[in-house]
Design brief:
Blueprint (H helix, E strand, L loop, with lengths): L7 H10 L12 E2 L2 H11 L6 E5 L5 H8 L3 E6 L2 H10 L7 E5 L7 H5 L4 E6 L5 H11 L3 E9 H7 L10 H9 E9 L4 E2 L6 E8 L10 H13 L5 H5 L8 H10 L13 H13 L9
Helix pairs in contact: 6-8, 9-12, 11-12
Bound molecules: S-adenosylmethionine.
Length: 292
């Protein structure tokens, strides 16, 4: 069964035929703009036969486009009602699409796709965006890139510059693992039903090496999180308690040894400067054996 999923009328008709309604709690805002689907497919640069994980296939609009572009798609959907629709509307694509019923936040993507490198392409439900991107990047999977529709404000946080309001721990995590850019800004009216906010398609291309080569990535991220946890405070105050036994005065010494102004606030530091502080902490013998 092939359905024209970029027409609001058809989306409504399809949902009604299965006795379904868009579930707000699951972030069900279906993309109904063919031009935006084109942008996502272009940004994904699909090669014939490559593996793509799609989170939240919904009614299958993007899934079909991915498969038709040559991808083998593993689509992870939580809502059993939508899975029933997907089985019907994507049936003609055969084994090019594998449907998995799971919570995308609980999936081990290494187990799901095996040892092959893969891409993630998704119109994410907004309530899982930050936890999904964070846990996915921290897990260090063999992904090549992620192309994601996200809430615009979250997309802007991912590509923010130091010293701006949007800059934070998410920015540092994203830039540590990937080169990030906003591909396209998307109006809320491209979705049915329209969400309360606008969106953006972001591309996160995995770096071959981390942007900041630090001695102890776990310590680096602990320092980053503490600095942004109290982002208005000067660094030694913000970092107090981040590492057992390292007090404010000691942090001031570590930060100065790293060549960073100890009166600065974390929100103005570049990822490289956080790296210098983390490495100075290790070299001066203040890092505990493991801070994971
Ligand atoms: N891909 C479709 C599109 O572009 O029209 C639907 C996107 S809609 C924004 C988000 C989809 O994610 C919905 O199908 C929703 O049911 C699904 N979803 C919500 N929470 C999920 C979760 N934790 N794990 C997997 N899928 C989820």
């Amino acid at each position: 069964m092939t359905v024209e999923l970029t027409s609001i009328r058809e989306v409504r008709r399809l949902l009604a035929a299965y006795g379904l309604q868009p579930r707000k709690t699951l972030g069900q805002n279906f993309l109904v703009a063919a031009g935006v689907l084109d942008k996502i497919i272009t940004a994904a640069e699909i090669r014939e036969g490559e593996l793509v994980v799609e989170v939240g296939p919904g009614l299958g609009a993007l899934t079909r486009r991915l498969a038709e572009a040559g991808a083998r798609v593993v689509a992870v959907e939580l809502d059993p009602g939508l899975l029933a629709v997907l089985r019907d509307v994507l049936g003609d694509l055969g084994d090019r699409v594998r449907l998995v019923r799971a919570d995308a936040l609980k999936v081990d993507y290494g187990t799901l796709v095996g040892t092959r490198s893969f891409k993630v392409v998704a119109n994410l439900p907004y309530y899982i965006t930050s936890p999904f991107v964070t846990s996915f990047l921290e897990a260090d999977y063999r992904f090549e890139r992620l192309v994601l529709m996200v809430q615009r404000e979250v997309g802007e946080r991912m590509v923010a510059q130091p010293g701006t309001k949007a800059y934070g721990a998410l920015t540092v995590l994203v830039s540590y693992h990937t080169r990030a850019d906003i591909v396209w800004r998307v109006s809320r009216h491209c979705f049915y039903p329209p969400p309360a906010v606008d969106s953006a398609v972001i591309r996160l291309a995995r770096r071959t090496r981390p942007a900041v080569p630090v001695l102890r990535p776990d310590l680096f991220f602990r320092i980053v999180r503490a600095a942004f946890g109290r982002r208005r405070k000067m660094l030694p105050n913000a970092l107090e308690g981040a590492v057992p036994g390292v007090d404010r005065e000691t942090w001031a010494r570590i930060i100065q040894t790293a060549g960073v102004d100890h009166r600065a606030r974390g929100e103005v530091l570049t990822p490289a400067q956080f790296g210098l502080i983390a490495d100075a902490c290790v070299r001066m013998g203040f890092a505990p054996p493991s801070v994971v």
